[in-house]
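Researcher: I'd like a structural prediction for the single chain below. Treat it as a standalone chain; there are no partners to consider.
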Amino acid sequence: MHSPADPDQLYDLIEDPEELRNLAPSPRFAARVREFRAEVGRRWDLKALHTEVIASQRRRHFVYDALRAGRQTPWDFQPLRDASRQYVRNDQELGDLEARARFPAVGASNVPQGSSS
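Model: Treating it as a single chain, here is the predicted structure.
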């Protein structure tokens, strides 16, 4: 493992599966560590990657701060329900409530075409 902010790490996962002995500082593994660092240099532009990560963190902090300002609203879908139509109210006719609760709705034809009821 390599990070510009931390010492390199190299482990023998067969002999040391819990990664308790870092082999990178050992002169015995210096050539291997150099090879891995060269590969890191070929694969990634660490300075550019660092710049992109910092910019991404700044954007996410900006959005987080903006979302915390004022009234908080969940980001995920929140279906709006009209509670005045969800429960029985004293101004509603019982027959109308029962008709809305039926499936299929009252008035929809339950009789196949061509049949008589």
